[in-house]
C-alpha cells in the first residue's frame, strides 16, 4: 500500500467531521491510489506558472449599494431545526 | 415513443393540437409507468405541474406570446433550489429542506413556459458518477435496469433516456452531465463556465459547477440552453456575454469545419476494442459530413484527475461547511453547539461526501496548501493553455465522453478511484471552463455510448451546429427503444 | 520571554490594535439586505446572508469605495490587484462557517495614524470582510447558559479591519489612536463609529519586554473591548498582570483573554480549538478587484479636509492653541459648526471660546448635541457680534446663549425681551456714576489715598445701580474723569 500523507484524525477535526475507526482506515487505504496520481502532479515543473483560481477573466463585478427586500421573517426561520421567539436556537457554546 | 421532443410539443401547442395540460399529463403518465423500475425521481410534483400547465394554457388562450419552452414538461436535478418544493441535493443532511427561493435557471425555465414535473435523483451533493451515492435510492439505466445511469445527474439522464420528459436539467462539475448522458443515450451539455447562473444551485465546487440541459435531441438542448443562459446579477461569476439564438446555428453538414482529434485520448481508449471502434466510426461519420479531421494534443490532460481531485474537494470542503444543523436541514443534538455540529455532519453526510471533505480539507490545510491546492491551480493554467493551442488548429474537438458503456450497479462502488476514472475524458474541459457535450454515438453491447464535442469558450452555438449535423446524419438517438417500458407492459 | 526581569520599570509594553469598523452602506456587503442596527431579530436576512444552499455573494461597490477612501485618508497604499478569500472555521454566528475576508492581497497596506504627541503609529493593512451574526445567550454568560439564540441581522454587514503594527506603548496611546481613527472615519462619513452599538470594535494584542529590547514578548489577545475606556483599562490591567507574572517568575502564556467590564479584569478564554488553521483560499464565488487609477483619483478628490489638516489650519489661520484646535476638530460636525460661527462672526477666537465654553455647557446640561440643538451657527455668530459691538455685556450674553441653543431663538429677540441691552446714553450713565460716588465716600477717599482696588469696587457699584446695563467702558471713563 502506497504511503498516504494525510493525518486523517487531525483533518477530521478541522472539518468537524468525526469518523469511525473503520471509516478512517477505509479512507486512508482508498486515498492510497489517488495519491499515486497526485504524486505525478508533484513531479511536474510549475514554478513559473500562474495559478488559475477562476477560468473566466472577470474583475470588478460589483453591485450598486441598493437595498433589496429581505426574506419574510417566517420564511427565514421556517427550516430551522429549533427556534425560540424570533431566534435560531441551538445548544450552548462552550467557550 | 411515448414522448415527443420539446420543440415538437411546443409546435403542437402553437398549432392548438395539444394543450400544455395534455403534454404534462403525458409526461406524468410516463413517469408513473416507469418510476418503479427506473427510480429517477426524488419527488414528482403533479399538482404543481398541472396548475402551472393550466396557467400556460390560459396565457396562450389570452393570446400571449409562446415562450421558448411553452408547455414543455421538464425535470430538474434535486440540486436546483425550487421555492416551496423540497430540495435535498441527494443528501440526508438536507432531507427536509424547503428553499424559500428558486434558482435563477428554474425561474428562467418557468419564464419560458416550461413545466417542472419533479426533482430527479442524483449522487449526494453531485459527488459521483453512478447515482449510487444518493442517500435515498439508486436510479437505473433505462436501457438496462441492472445497470447504473451514470452520475451525478443520473435521475435527469434516466428520465430523458426513458423518454418520460424531453428535457431535464443537470449540473456538471467534472462530467456529471456528459457521462450520464452517454450512459442513457441522450444529449447532455456542459456550457462554458460563466454561461449559466449558479445562483440557487446547491454548490459542489464553485469554480467548476455549471448547469446544463439533458435532452432527447440537439435542438432541445439548443433551446433549453438559450432559455437558461445569460448574465445574472446574483452570480458574480456569470459572464455578461450575449446569448445567441442557438437554433439558428444548427447545421446539416460540416463543410469547412476542422474537427480536432486528441491524440492522447486515442491512446487511452485504444485498449478497449469495441469502444475504440465506435469512436473511430464516429470520427469517420464527421468526415463524411464534410469535416476535416486534424490531430490535436492536450498534453496535460493526464494530470486532469489529480488536479480535479485536489481543486473540487477543496472547494467542496468549504462549501459544505454550512451544513451544521444550525439553520436548516438535519440536526443531531449534542450537549454543546460544536458537538451538535459534529454529530450532525457525521450522521448527515454519506461516505463519498465525507471522503471528499477530508481530502479537500487536507489540500487546504496549513503546510499543504501550496503543495496541493496552489499546484493544482497552476496545472489548471497549463490545461487551459492546452485547449487554447488546440483550438488554434481546429474549430471543435471530438473525443470520447466515457471510457466504457454503462456498468452494473455495485460494480465500482467499493473502488472510488475506479469510479473517479470514469471522468477521465470529461475533467479537462471542466478545468479549462470550455463548453462540451455528449451526443449519442451508437451502442456497445446494446448499451448507449456518447461522443463528446468540445468548443472554445462561449462557442456553444458552433458545438450545437456540429452535434446537430452528426445527430441528423446518424440518428443514433432514434435507433432503439429503451427497455424500461417492457417490464410494465408499455411498449413503445 | 525567558529572562527574569527585575523591577517593572525595566519593562515596556508593546501593543497592536485590530479595529473592526462597520461601514455605513445602505445594504450589506454581499447581498441587498438593509444594513441597519436595532431591527427585530432575523428580519434583515435573505438566502445569501443566511448562508442557504445555492446562494452566492456579490460585492457591494460602496463598501469597496468606503474602504479605499478610509485607506487614502490614512495614507495607505491602495492595491492595484486585490481579491476576496475564505477564512474557514466553524462558529454558530457564521452562517456559512467561513467568513469572506481578504488574506494575502488586502485592499490597502501601509499608512499611519498620528497621535497628538506627533508619534506615528504605522498600519499593517486594512481589509474588507463581512460581519458575523450575534449570539444571544440565555443567562448571564456564555459558559452558564443552557443554549444559544442567534440573530443573523448583523451577518454580512460590511466590515473593515484596520490592523496596526505593534507600535503603541501605553493604554493612553491606544485610546488616542482610537480617537484619531474614529475622527477620521466620521470625517469621511464611512462609518458612524459607535462603539456602544458595535460599529467600532477593538481587539488588543499586548506584550511586554525588557525596556529597549528588540524581540517581542509573548503576546496576549484581549477581546470584548466595547468602549474607549475599556480599551484603556484592559490594556493597563493586562500590562500589570504581565508584569506581576514576570515578578513572580511565571511564564506568560500566549492566549486570548476576555475583558470583563464589571470586575475590571481579563480572564483566559479557552483558545478557540484549531483556530490557527483557517485554510484561507481565494473565494471562487467572487472575482478579483482591479480598481484602476482613474477611479482611485476620483475618490481621492472626493475626500474632505481631514482632522489633522484642519488642526494645522486653525492654529495657523485662527491663532488657536493646539489643544483648542484638537478639541474643535474631533468631530466633523462640530468643526463644521465652529467654522460657520467663525466665518459669520468674523471672530474665530471668540467663536472658539463660545463653542468650547458656554455652548458646550448648555448643551451638556440639556443632554443635547450640536446636531440635535435648535440653535444654528448664524445665531451664535449674531450673539458674538452683539457683544463685540457693545450692545450687550459678555455677562448678559451668557444669559442669552441657552435660549439660543436650546430653543433656537434669535439673540436680538431675547436681548430685547429681557431688556439686556447696555445703556450708552451718557446722561444716564453719568447719573449712575454720580449716585455711586455719592453713596461711597469712603471708597472715593481710599482711592484718592492710592488704593487702586477701590476703583474696581466703584465700577461694580455703578454696574449694580444700572442693573448691569451701563456700558462698562463708558463707566470707567466717567469715573476716571470724576475722580481724576
Ligand atoms: Mg477580521
Ligand atoms: Zn441578506
Question: Quick gist of this model?
Answer:
The complex is a heterotrimer of chains A (95), B (492) and C (484). Chain B is of the alpha/beta class and 492 residues long. Chain B has helices at residues 6-14, 20-38, 46-61, 104-111, 154-161, 178-184, 218-228, 263-269, 273-288, 304-319, 337-348, 351-364, 370-391, 416-420, 427-432, 460-474; strands at residues 41-44, 73-77, 115-120, 167-172, 187-190, 210-215, 258-262, 292-296, 396-400, 436-444, 447-454.
Q: How many separate helices of chain A?
A: 3
* Bound small molecules, deduplicated: magnesium ion, zinc ion
- State the distance separating the first and last CA atoms of chain A: 42 Å
The N- and C-terminal alpha carbons of chain C lie at a distance of: 80 Å
Please name the two chains that share the biggest interface, counting residues whose Cβ lies under 8 Å from a Cβ on the partner chain.
Answer: A-B, 51 and 71 residues
- The overall number of domains of chain C is 3
Alpha-beta content class of chain A? alpha+beta
What is the strand content of chain C?
15-25%
Helix fraction of chain C, binned, reads 25-40%
Describe this structure in words.
The complex is a heterotrimer of chains A (95), B (492) and C (484). In chain A, a hairpin with a 2-residue loop joins strand 2 and strand 3 (87-91). Chain A is α+β, with helices and mostly antiparallel strands and 95 residues long. Chain A is built from three helices and three strands; from the N terminus they run ααβαββ. Chain B has helices at 6-14, 20-38, 46-61, 104-111, 154-161, 178-184, 218-228, 263-269, 273-288, 304-319, 337-348, 351-364, 370-391, 416-420, 427-432, 460-474, and strands spanning 41-44, 73-77, 115-120, 167-172, 187-190, 210-215, 258-262, 292-296, 396-400, 436-444, 447-454. Chain B starts with 5 loop residues before the first helix and ends in an 18-residue tail after the last helix. In chain B, strands 1-3-2-4-6-5-10-11-9-7-8 form an eleven-stranded mixed sheet, with helices on both faces. Chain C folds into three domains: 11-298, no CATH class; 305-418, no CATH class; 426-483, Arc Repressor Mutant, subunit A (Orthogonal Bundle), CATH 1.10.10.410. Chain C has 15 helices and 16 strands. In chain C, helix 7 (332-345) packs across helix 8 (348-365), helix 7 packs parallel to helix 9 and helix 14 (453-465) packs across helix 15 (472-483). In chain C, 44% of the residues are buried. Classes of the chains: A alpha+beta (95), B alpha/beta (492), C alpha+beta (484). The A-C interface holds A 13-14, 16, 53-54, 56, 58-71, 73, 76-77, 84-95 and C 25-27, 31-34, 40-47, 50, 58-64, 83, 90, 92, 135-137, 142-143, 145-152, 269-270, 273-274, 277, 279, 282, 284, 286-291. Zinc ion (ZN) binds at residues 28, 31, 33, 45-46, 48-49, 156 of chain C. Zinc ion (ZN) is lined by residues 28, 31, 33, 45-46, 48-49, 156 of chain C.
Amino acid at each position: 500500500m502506497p504511503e498516504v500523507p494525510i493525518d486523517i484524525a487531525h483533518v477530521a477535526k478541522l472539518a468537524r467531521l468525526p469518523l469511525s475507526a473503520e471509516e478512517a482506515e477505509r479512507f486512508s487505504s482508498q486515498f492510497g491510489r489517488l495519491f499515486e496520481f497526485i504524486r505525478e502532479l508533484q513531479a511536474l515543473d510549475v514554478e513559473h506558472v500562474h495559478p488559475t483560481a477562476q477560468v473566466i477573466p472577470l474583475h470588478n463585478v460589483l453591485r450598486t449599494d441598493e437595498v433589496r427586500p429581505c426574506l419574510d421573517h417566517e420564511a427565514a426561520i421556517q427550516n430551522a431545526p429549533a427556534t425560540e421567539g424570533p431566534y435560531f436556537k441551538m445548544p450552548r457554546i462552550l467557550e | 415513443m411515448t414522448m415527443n421532443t420539446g420543440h415538437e410539443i411546443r409546435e403542437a401547442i402553437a398549432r392548438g393540437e395539444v394543450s400544455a395540460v395534455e403534454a404534462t399529463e403525458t409526461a406524468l403518465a410516463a413517469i408513473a409507468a416507469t418510476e418503479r423500475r427506473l427510480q429517477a425521481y426524488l419527488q414528482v410534483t403533479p399538482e404543481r405541474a398541472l396548475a402551472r400547465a393550466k396557467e400556460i394554457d390560459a396565457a396562450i388562450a389570452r393570446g400571449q406570446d409562446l415562450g421558448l419552452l411553452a408547455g414543455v414538461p421538464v425535470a430538474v436535478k434535486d440540486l436546483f433550489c425550487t421555492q416551496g418544493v423540497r430540495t435535498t441535493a441527494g443528501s440526508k443532511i438536507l432531507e427536509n429542506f424547503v428553499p424559500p427561493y428558486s434558482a435563477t435557471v428554474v425561474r428562467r425555465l418557468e419564464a419560458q413556459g416550461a413545466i417542472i414535473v419533479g426533482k430527479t435523483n442524483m449522487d449526494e451533493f453531485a459527488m459521483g458518477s453512478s447515482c449510487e451515492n444518493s442517500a435515498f435510492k439508486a436510479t437505473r439505466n433505462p436501457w438496462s435496469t441492472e445497470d447504473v445511469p451514470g452520475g451525478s445527474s443520473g435521475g435527469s439522464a434516466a428520465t430523458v433516456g426513458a423518454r418520460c420528459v424531453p428535457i431535464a436539467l443537470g449540473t456538471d462539475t467534472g462530467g456529471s452531465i456528459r457521462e450520464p448522458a452517454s450512459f442513457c443515450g441522450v444529449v447532455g451539455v456542459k456550457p462554458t463556465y460563466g454561461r449559466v447562473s449558479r445562483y440557487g444551485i446547491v454548490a459542489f465546487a464553485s469554480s467548476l459547477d455549471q448547469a446544463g440541459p439533458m435532452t432527447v435531441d440537439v435542438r432541445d438542448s439548443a433551446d433549453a440552453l438559450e432559455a437558461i443562459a445569460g448574465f445574472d446579477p446574483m452570480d458574480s461569476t456569470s459572464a455578461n456575454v450575449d446569448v445567441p439564438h442557438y437554433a439558428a446555428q444548427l447545421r446539416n453538414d460540416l463543410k469547412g469545419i476542422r474537427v480536432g482529434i486528441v491524440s492522447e485520448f486515442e491512446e487511452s481508449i485504444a485498449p478497449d476494442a469495441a469502444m475504440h471502434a465506435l469512436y473511430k466510426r464516429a470520427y469517420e461519420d464527421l468526415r463524411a459530413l464534410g469535416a476535416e479531421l486534424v490531430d490535436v494534443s492536450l498534453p496535460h490532460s493526464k494530470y486532469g484527475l489529480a488536479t480535479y481531485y485536489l481543486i473540487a474537494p477543496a472547494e467542496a470542503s468549504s462549501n459544505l461547511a454550512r451544513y451544521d444543523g444550525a439553520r436548516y436541514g438535519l440536526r443531531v443534538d449534542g450537549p454543546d453547539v460544536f458537538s451538535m455540529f459534529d454529530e450532525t455532519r457525521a450522521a448527515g453526510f454519506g461516505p463519498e461526501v465525507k471522503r471528499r471533505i477530508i481530502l479537500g480539507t487536507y489540500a487546504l490545510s496549513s503546510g499543504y496548501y501550496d503543495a496541493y491546492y496552489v499546484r493544482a491551480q497552476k496545472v489548471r493554467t497549463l490545461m487551459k493553455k492546452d485547449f487554447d493551442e488546440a483550438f488554434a488548429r481546429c474549430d471543435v474537438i471530438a473525443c470520447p465522453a466515457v471510457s466504457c458503456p454503462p456498468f452494473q450497479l455495485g460494480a465500482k462502488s467499493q473502488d472510488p478511484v475506479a469510479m473517479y476514472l470514469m471522468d477521465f475524458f470529461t475533467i479537462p474541459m471542466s478545468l479549462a471552463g470550455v463548453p462540451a457535450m455528449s451526443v449519442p454515438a451508437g451502442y456497445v453491447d446494446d448499451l448507449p455510448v456518447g461522443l463528446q464535442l468540445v468548443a472554445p469558450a462561449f462557442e456553444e452555438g458552433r458545438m450545437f451546429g456540429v452535434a446537430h449535423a452528426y445527430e441528423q446524419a446518424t440518428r443514433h438517438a432514434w435507433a432503439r427503444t429503451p427497455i424500461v417500458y417492457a417490464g410494465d407492459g408499455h411498449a413503445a | 520571554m525567558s529572562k527574569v526581569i527585575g523591577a517593572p520599570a525595566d519593562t515596556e509594553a508593546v501593543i497592536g490594535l485590530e479595529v473592526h469598523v462597520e461601514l455605513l452602506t445602505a445594504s450589506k456587503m454581499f447581498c441587498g439586505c438593509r444594513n441597519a442596527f436595532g431591527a427585530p431579530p432575523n428580519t434583515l436576512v435573505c438566502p445569501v446572508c443566511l448562508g442557504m444552499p445555492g446562494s452566492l455573494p456579490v460585492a457591494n461597490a460602496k463598501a469597496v469605495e468606503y474602504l479605499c477612501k478610509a485607506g487614502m485618508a490614512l495614507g495607505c497604499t491602495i492595491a492595484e490587484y486585490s481579491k476576496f478569500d475564505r477564512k474557514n472555521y466553524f462558529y454558530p454566528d457564521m452562517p456559512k462557517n467561513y467568513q469572506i475576508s481578504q488574506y494575502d492581497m488586502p485592499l490597502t497596506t501601509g499608512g499611519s495614524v498620528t497621535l497628538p504627541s506627533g508619534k506615528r503609529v504605522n498600519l499593517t493593512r486594512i481589509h474588507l470582510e463581512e460581519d458575523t451574526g450575534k449570539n444571544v445567550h440565555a443567562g448571564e454568560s456564555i459558559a452558564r447558559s443552557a443554549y444559544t439564540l442567534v440573530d443573523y441581522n448583523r451577518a454580512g454587514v460590511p466590515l473593515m479591519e484596520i490592523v496596526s503594527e505593534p507600535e503603541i506603548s501605553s493604554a493612553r496611546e491606544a485610546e488616542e489612536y482610537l480617537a484619531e481613527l474614529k475622527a477620521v472615519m466620521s470625517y469621511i462619513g464611512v462609518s458612524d463609529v459607535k462603539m456602544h452599538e458595535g460599529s467600532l470594535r477593538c481587539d488588543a494584542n499586548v506584550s511586554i519586554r525588557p525596556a529597549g529590547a528588540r524581540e517581542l514578548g509573548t503576546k496576549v489577545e484581549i477581546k470584548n473591548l466595547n468602549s474607549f475606556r475599556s480599551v484603556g483599562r484592559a490594556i493597563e490591567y493586562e500590562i500589570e498582570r504581565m508584569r506581576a507574572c514576570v515578578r513572580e517568575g511565571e511564564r506568560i502564556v500566549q492566549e486570548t483573554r476576555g475583558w470583563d467590564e464589571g470586575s475590571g479584569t481579563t480572564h483566559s478564554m479557552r483558545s478557540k480549538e484549531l483556530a490557527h488553521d483557517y485554510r484561507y483560499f481565494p473565494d471562487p464565488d467572487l472575482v478579483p478587484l482591479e480598481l484602476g487609477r482613474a477611479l482611485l483619483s476620483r475618490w481621492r478628490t472626493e475626500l474632505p479636509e481631514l482632522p489633522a489638516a484642519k488642526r494645522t489650519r486653525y492654529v495657523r489661520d485662527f491663532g488657536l492653541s493646539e489643544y483648542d484646535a484638537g478639541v474643535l476638530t474631533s468631530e466633523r460636525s462640530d468643526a463644521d459648526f465652529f467654522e460657520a460661527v467663525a466665518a459669520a462672526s468674523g471672530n474665530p477666537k471668540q467663536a472658539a471660546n463660545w463653542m468650547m465654553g458656554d455652548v458646550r455647557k448648555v448643551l451638556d446640561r440639556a443632554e443635547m448635541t450640536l446636531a440635535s440643538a435648535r440653535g444654528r451657527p448664524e445665531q451664535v455668530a449674531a450673539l458674538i457680534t452683539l457683544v463685540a459691538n457693545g450692545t450687550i455685556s459678555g455677562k448678559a450674553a451668557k444669559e442669552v446663549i441657552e435660549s439660543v441653543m436650546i430653543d433656537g431663538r434669535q439673540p436680538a429677540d431675547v436681548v430685547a425681551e429681557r431688556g439686556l441691552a447696555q445703556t450708552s446714553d451718557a446722561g444716564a450713565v453719568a447719573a449712575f456714576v454720580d449716585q455711586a460716588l455719592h453713596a461711597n465716600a469712603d471708597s472715593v477717599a481710599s482711592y484718592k489715598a492710592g488704593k487702586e482696588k477701590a476703583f474696581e469696587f466703584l465700577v461694580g457699584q455703578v454696574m449694580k445701580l444700572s442693573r448691569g446695563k451701563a456700558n462698562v467702558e463708558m463707566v470707567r471713563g466717567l469715573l476716571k474723569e470724576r475722580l481724576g
